[in-house]
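A brief tutorial aside. Many learners find it easier to grasp structure tokens once they have seen a single protein encoded end to end. The record that follows does exactly this for Transporter. Read the sequence first, then the structure, and try to relate runs of similar tokens to stretches of the chain.
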Amino acid sequence: MTNKTSIHGSWASRWIFILAATGSAVGLGNIWKFPYITGENGGGAFVLVYLACILLVGIPIMMAEVFIGRRARKNPIDAMSDLATESDSPKAWGLVGTMAMISGLLILSFYSVVGGWVLHYLKIMLSGDMIGATSAQAGTAFDNLLADPAMLLAWHTLFCAMTVSVVAIGINKGIETATRIMMPALFVLLLVLLGYAITTDGFAQGWDFMFKFDFDKLTWGAALIALGHSFFTLSLGMAIIMAYGSYMTKDASIGKTVLTIGILDTLVALVAGLAIFPIIFSNGMDPAAGPGLMFISLPVAFGQMPFGQLFGVLFFVLVGVAAWTSAISLLEPSVAFLVERFGLKRPTAAIGIGVGIWALGIACLASFNLTSDVTFFGKNTFDFLDYITANIMLPLGGILTALFAGWVVKAKFSQDELQLPSVLFKAWSISVKFTAPVAVAVVLYFLLNPIK
Ligand code: PHE
Ligand code: NA
């Protein structure tokens, strides 16, 4: 192990790293996607497949990202090119880090627009406007938001500013402080919402939707969804965990740390499902995924329930915190790069990139109204960016990172950082050399050629 530290500082403890990485991992994927795909694809049976994917593919790639960052103590681009050089391989491997960082920035541009929607809904819940609303009224309210570029811009700008300001302050005073406050708040809010959901008459139905074993629904297609999601949910393939890993203290065990992050992310996703679906079912509504669940069905459900306004507010605070901590993690790698490579001050770098993201976000939000007829390959700007990042760049980044860790980096470097017993090290090597790249390549293939 090397004794270098990053010029940006180190996390105060192993737990702070765990919570910061969990802050990145816990996002809309846990709250609006996982519960729904679980219910649709065989409940408990799907959860088992998903856990296998997390363990066999997600965790090994995450370990690779952490050790690459921690060993080099640099931003993802230089970390990968340094480690390639030390391993007598071409420096051009740094390009994988470059691609990963760019995909993170592209994601941030539309993520910030959605973060803005969440802030807008927080305000709506606070105002009580949704009390007693029907689904049709809530649907119109959401359509009206999307049709209003000035309103979208205001909230997007606020969300960008919130993200930039935390990253501008730095690792210890910025991201670490935000983590210390927001992650415990997130866990508490989630448990409070779970407690509330248990009191509704939809709880048993919600539980069945999530956990009843339905092997008939567990198809090969479902297994692919589990694999693809295991990857997205841990924020892999975007050099985020690599950047966060470069601030990790050297005495902490990477395997145990990464396993804890995977468990926390999974628990949040399971509890989120148990908190959300009972609320939906107890109001006689149908489960759905994505924006419709969060911005139409749930506000209607909260609007009809006792104490619904209070819990609706808490729910949107929870989602806002989850989105904010993920956005912070999307910005950090590029800021670290500009500071290290060009000697920029951190606030200058954060604001500079922030302005670029903000501008690209404007193109995304305009695609719902002013420029809705502008399309790339048949998709509007927002959907196009979502598609190329989540379906192409992210899996590609993951495959290349796994191959890099398994085949390019000298085994003595990885063993030195991971410090695993030899059986586990073998298992890890097999995963990053073969299992993970092949599995993710299969997902990538089917994402690009959907089964009709
Ligand atoms: N991991 C996040 C989620 O599950 C999504 C995300 C992906 C966030 C990539 C940041 C970067 O919602
Ligand atoms: Na997640």
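Self-check: The mean pLDDT is 95. If you spotted this yourself, you are ready for the next section.
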